[in-house]
Amino acid sequence: MSGKRLLCLSLGGTITMVPSAEGGIAPKLGAAELVASVPDLAKVAAVEADSPARLPSPSLTPGHLVDVAQRIEAAFANGADGAVVIQGTDTIEESAFLLDLLVAGDRPVVVTGAMRGAAAAGAEGPANLLAAARVAASEAARGLGTLAVLNDEIHAARFVQKSHTALPSAFTSPMAGPLGIVAEDRVRIFTRVERHAGLPAQDGPPRPVALLTWAMGDDGRLLDALPGLGYAGAVIAGMGAGHVPADAADAVGALATRMPVVLASRCATGPAVTETYGYPGGEIDLIRRGVLPGGMLSAPKARLLLGLALRGGGGHGAAAAAFAAYR
């Protein structure tokens, strides 16, 4: 035993799934069962295990992650050295980014899961859980914010993406690469990222934000309906570096006068640019109409940041301040 203390919270996901009578696999196992299945965890730390949910990750909400963030902060205040969050892989990149924004301090928070169910041949869940615990208990991982650890790779929350639907190597960080690896039972950090200012978990879940991915021929007719549907803001996943058709630019600009609108890219990697394309519907035109650049964030992560920034009645100014660090 290392003398370290870890909090391990399970929300469900493929790592917890076993065959069900209804067919297919479903989340059944809890955190305590997962921890008990990996005896080497006892050499890493004393683990406190709990299961706030047993859900497939498409059914998780930001509210679940706000609750997780509050539990982690309480555990840190009680002396825990790190935290591991277990969940389904479909939304790991969003959960990790939310926790990166919501949990303050230097102690590591690590999100992990598995691509294969617990009963599958070659199930990688136990190995991922052990690697995640090693990172969460590591002094080398302090100050890096929330991390995603799968397939023995360590990814920063702001960069990690699920890039394949089936392979155990599904997770990548296309813009930066992994920060490090777990090898020979050691946490090896190759590079570090600067943490950006967070947004407190005590303020609750994000406000509702619409996410629209632009496609060829879309004229923006949905935009006018968004304020009436209860959305507090919108993120547009534009074409290329952040563009919409010329005949949709007026509609985007009109929406930006009614709510904060952030411009991201629908591409898998690369920033939304700010000063390259000057044609109608290009990013220069849209920014002049009041749209905020989303910088390096993917559209789903931009949606979460915007929703958190708009809590407590925040508007365009609060949104612009939140995104400034990501440009």
Summarize the structure in short.
By secondary structure, this protein is an alpha/beta fold. The chain contains 9 helices and 16 strands.
Write the layout of secondary structure elements.
Elements lengths: L4 E6 L6 E3 L5 E3 L3 H6 L4 H4 L1 E5 L11 H16 L4 E5 L5 H11 L6 E4 L12 H12 L9 E5 L2 E4 L4 E2 L8 E2 L7 E4 L2 E4 L19 E5 L19 E6 L10 H8 L4 E5 L17 H6 L3 E2 L5 H11 L6 H8 L4
Helix pairs in contact: 3-4, 4-8, 8-9
Describe the fold and architecture:
25% of the residues lie in helices and 20% in strands. The strands form four sheets. The chain has an eight-stranded mixed β-sheet, with helices on both faces. The protein has a four-stranded parallel β-sheet with strand order 13-14-15-16, with helices on both faces. It has a two-stranded antiparallel ribbon with strand order 2-3. The protein has nine helices and 16 strands. It has 327 residues and is α/β, with parallel strands linked by helices. The mean pLDDT is 96.
Task: Give structural attributes.
327 residues, alpha/beta, 8-stranded mixed beta sheet, 4-stranded parallel beta sheet, 9 helices, 16 strands, 25% helix, elongated
| Shape, per Cα inertia axes | elongated
Q: Output the helix-strand order.
A: EEEHHEHEHEHEEEEEEEEHEHEHH
User: Helix tally?
Assistant: 9
Please mark out the parts with pLDDT under 50 across 5 or more consecutive residues, or reply none.
none
- Taking the alpha carbons of the first and last residues, their distance comes to 43 Å
Seen as an oligomer or otherwise, the chain set is: single chain
**Average pLDDT rating:** 96
- Evaluate the radius of gyration: 20 Å
Number of strands: 16
* Order of the strands making up the biggest sheet: 4-1-5-6-7-8-11-12
Major pleated sheet: 8 strands, mixed
Estimate what percentage of residues fall within beta strands: 15-25%
Helix content: 25-40%
Category by helix and strand content: alpha/beta
